[in-house]
Inverse folding.
């Protein structure tokens, strides 16, 4: 009974919001639409695709058509991340061999330190230039890929039957071309850089740590593993506590 009243309330609110009192509306379809969350044309839709892997591969296939720019992105990303790692490693000898000795010297000569700082500045400059070209190339790949998606989407709409357009609103269709395509473009612009940068930075950092001190690397790995286990275990305990606190008195159902 309560579920039926809730259903009628949701339908009434949705019809009032959409102003469809004079339109024949499929109540079951609307209720399911509200129950699953707003969709295209009515807000964001966070439902997962049926085939996440296949969807990602289809999106990346559009970006893969620009192999020249992708190669440039990889090269520039290697230069940018490599320069950042080299600059981080360069700080140790800079402090130990140039800054610390100057503290104890009665007559201070900053020429050698200035030369090392100039080298460090060049490394950071090379990293900044590589990052700039990486961002420009990613923007071009994302724009070209999104444009190709829109063209394919428009071509697919030409083959759709008339009933398809009767079942889907204009706002929903326009949302596919505008909002959804823009989200894919933003994902490509940022996702490619973050994914490649994360992999290169992780591999480079591990290599530097092993080169400096493999014992300290083992201690770091153990510390991170223990911290991750504690955080995960604490999260599960907190989730169970919240769920138990949300149980209605005298009822086995939980609040949602």
């Amino acid at each position: 009974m309560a579920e039926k009243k809730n259903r009628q309330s949701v339908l009434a609110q949705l019809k009032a919001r959409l102003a469809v009192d004079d339109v024949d509306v499929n109540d079951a379809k609307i209720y399911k639409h509200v129950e699953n969350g707003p969709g295209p044309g009515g807000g964001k839709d966070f439902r997962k695709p049926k085939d996440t892997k296949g969807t990602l591969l289809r999106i990346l296939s559009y970006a893969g058509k620009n192999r020249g720019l992708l190669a440039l992105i990889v090269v520039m990303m290697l230069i940018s991340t490599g320069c950042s790692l080299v600059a981080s490693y360069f700080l140790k000898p800079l402090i130990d061999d140039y800054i610390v000795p100057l503290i104890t010297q009665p007559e201070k000569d900053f020429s050698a330190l200035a030369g090392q700082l100039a080298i460090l500045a060049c490394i950071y400059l090379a990293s900044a230039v590589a990052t700039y070209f990486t961002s420009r190339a990613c923007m071009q790949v994302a724009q070209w890929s999104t444009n190709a998606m829109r063209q394919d989407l428009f071509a697919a709409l030409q083959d759709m039957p008339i009933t398809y357009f009767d079942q889907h609103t204009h706002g929903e269709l326009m949302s596919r071309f505008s909002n959804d395509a823009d989200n894919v473009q933003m994902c490509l612009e940022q996702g490619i850089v973050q994914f490649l940068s994360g992999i290169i930075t992780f591999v480079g950092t591990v290599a530097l740590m092993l080169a400096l001190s493999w014992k300290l690397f083992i201690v770091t790995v153990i510390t991170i593993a223990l911290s991750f286990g504690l955080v995960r275990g604490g999260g599960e305990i907190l989730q169970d506590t919240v769920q138990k606190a949300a149980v209605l008195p005298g009822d086995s159902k939980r609040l949602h």
User: Anything to note?
Assistant: The helical segments are 2-18, 27-36, 52-63, 67-104, 111-158, 162-167, 170-212, 214-245.
